[in-house]
Amino acid sequence: MLWRNWLMALIGAWFVVSAWVLNPMHSSTYLWTAIVLGGLVLIASVWELSDKVFRSWVYYLEALFGLYLGLSPFFYNFTGFAWAATITVILGAAVLVGGLWQVRAGSSSSSTKPHTPNRRIAS
To answer: Is-above-0.85 flag for pTM?
Structure first.
């Protein structure tokens, strides 16, 4: 899960930066949406990187943030700027999929006994 957390943190940081880079219509609403939600994705990912306890609700929130970010070009009507809309939709979808993937990966690994080494039984 470590690499997925780093990837989610990187995407969250990109959304914070994209508030200025991908804001072709100079919308203050999009600016603050990208800063706040991108920052929340970044904070949640860094929190999960530093914390050793799996919390599925954090990843569900990240998935929800990704859904909103992916739909934001349609909410803020900048679909006419194809390059900005495409990048935002793709990265929003990546956050959505990454959050749900983290939940699935974490729940399947928590069903096994943690910190138990796999040992082969000699026959």
So the answer is: no
